[in-house]
Amino acid sequence: MEDGMGSTVSSDFVRQVEGYGLTTAHILYRRPDHHWLLQSYVWQAYDLFPKFPELQRFLDFWQAKLEGPLHSVQVAHCKLIKPAEMRTVNGEFVLH
């Protein structure tokens, strides 16, 4: 994608401007062979707060296709850039 000035704009940047924020999920799951043993997995992607559709898709896939049952999921989310933070500047102040 180009920004109109011939530069390429990062797809991650475009998603952030659209309201996506970096989301990290720390997933604890039970080992299929030893249910008493918990193992952790860290998932990270850009997702939309508060419904987290990307994370929901991943967890649905996990439950449908993988054998290790989920124990718990902790989510951390940070909007790196919000549309409200971007604005045009109409003037310039010069300090001596």
Automatic annotation (TrEMBL):
Domain of life: Bacteria
Pfam families the UniProt entry points to: Usg
Protein name, as recorded: Protein usg
